[in-house]
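Quick start: read one record
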Amino acid sequence: MRYFIAFVTALGLLFLLVFLLFHGGGSKPKITAKSLATYANSSTQAQLTIDGPINAEQSHQAVRITVANDQVTFEQIQGYQGSVKNLQSFASNQDAYVNFLLALQHAGFTLGNNASALKDERGYCPLGDRYIFRLTQNGQDLERYWATSCGKPKTYLGSISLTLALFQAQVPGYNQLVQGIQF
C-alpha cells in the first residue's frame, strides 16, 4: 500500500511539473490591439503626461498633452497636487485627429501589459521621467499604460520615442513651452 501511495504521489508531482512547464506557472502580460481609428468620431482623448524626477513639492514639474478631435491642450503642472502653471489650447479638427490616432496606432499605442502588480508607476525611475499614456472617454480610462526614461519595468509596449514625438508634434511651439522645465 505504501508503494502505491508513493507511486500516485510521484505521478501527481510529475503531472504538476509538466503542467507548469507548458503553462509558465504565472500570468502572462495581456497585449491588446484595438483600432484607434474607431474612436475618431467620439469624445475620446489621447493623453501623454511626462512626470519629472521625484523631488520636493515646490520643485516637482510635469507636462500633460491632451489631444481631442477639436483641440490640443498643453499643461505645465507644478507640484504633486496638479496645480496648472501654464495652460495653452490649440484648435484642431477631425482630419488632424484621425491622422494622429492612426499614427499612434502604428506606434503601438494600444499595446500594453495589464499586470496588476504594475498598475501604479509612482516611485519608479525616481531620478528620471515617467511617461503615462492614456486613452479616455468621458473622464474614464479606456486604456492606461506607462513607461520611464530608465527602461524597465513598464507597462507600455509601443514605441516610446515615436509616441513622445507624435504628442509633442501636436503642440505648436512645444520646445519653447518646455524651456526651463526640469526633465
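Helices lie at 2-23, 94-107, 160-169, 174-177.
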